[in-house]
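Much of our argument rests on the idea that a fold can be written as discrete symbols. Part of our work consisted of pairing the sequence of a single chain with a tokenised description of its backbone. The amino acid sequence and the backbone structure tokens for this protein are reproduced below.
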Amino acid sequence: MALDPRALPDDALRFLAERHLAILTTVSPDGTLHACAVGFTFDPATGTARVITGRTSRKARNVAAGSRAVVAQVDGPRWLSLEGPARVADDPAAVAEGERRYT
């Protein structure tokens, strides 16, 4: 079932607010999928999922090359996937905001 990430039900928002590892999947320039474990935060007001990583990581390079992304959080029988356009934000204010939300 597809939902608007800015209008998720309360149980989904509670789940996203819990700290779990998730799997981030991006598409490499050669078309292969790249999946890796990540921590992320979710901003329900904007529908934004944030992952902190280094700019030379494969996931960051895939996103910089134009990849969309899926972040999927799983806890036993509960799971939720967020899919959409991705971008690398490396300006100091955006990085500081991402770090603040993650700590």
